[in-house]
Specification:
188 residues, alpha+beta, 3-stranded antiparallel beta sheet, 8 helices, 5 strands
């Protein structure tokens, strides 16, 4: 087995940035003096860049939940906490996946919230994200921050009415198969 593939597989198993750093050095994204593999702490955007390069340049695709491969527990915990503070009656979903665009692989993300029973119903003209919309994953932090700026709390998009029955909350067949960010955090 080649060393690059071995490092990628070890990253899948352990989610230890050390192995992703080894991949980055081997494929030339970073030089050894740019990464201290002894501490090997990366952020989500660095992980996206490396995973994208593995797919496009080396035909290596990581298996497993991409959200947990891109976000470490601390990053996911921070996003979940900030989401819960702003929208306590909505569950945040943050998904990552490979998508082929113009012959190139792209890591895409979808960020949206689903109401819980008792959550305020959003205004008809609100564009508060309640359905999966895929975008370039490198934008997910900006998308999250923009949502919090535009809608700092539930009252900022509420119609004054509340979801009272489970049947009122729509999930597409795709969305029914997804885990919320909170559920992923519990599994991390």
């Amino acid at each position: 087995m080649n060393l690059l593939l071995e490092c990628a597989e070890n990253y899948e198993l352990t989610r230890d940035d050390y192995y992703l750093g080894c991949c980055a050095i081997q494929i030339g994204l970073y030089y050894p003096d740019q990464l201290d593999l002894a501490i090997a702490k990366m952020d989500a955007l660095q992980r996206i860049e490396i995973i994208d390069s593995l797919a496009n340049e080396h035909d290596i695709f990581l298996d497993g939940d991409m959200t947990l491969l891109i976000l470490d527990k601390e990053e996911l915990s921070t996003l979940v906490e900030r989401s819960r503070q702003a929208y306590p009656n909505y569950e945040m979903y943050l998904l990552f996946d490979y998508e082929k665009v113009d012959g190139e692989w792209l890591i895409s993300s979808a960020l949206y919230w689903k109401p819980l029973i008792g959550a305020p119903i959003f205004l008809d003209d609100s564009d508060f994200p309640t359905q999966a919309y895929w975008d370039d994953a490198s934008n997910f932090i900006d998308d999250f921050e923009m949502t919090l700026r535009c809608y700092p709390n539930e009252e900022s998009f509420s119609s004054g009415q509340h979801f009272e029955h489970e049947e009122e909350i729509y999930f597409s067949p795709f969305e029914l198969k997804q885990f919320s960010a909170y559920q992923l955090l519990a599994a991390a």
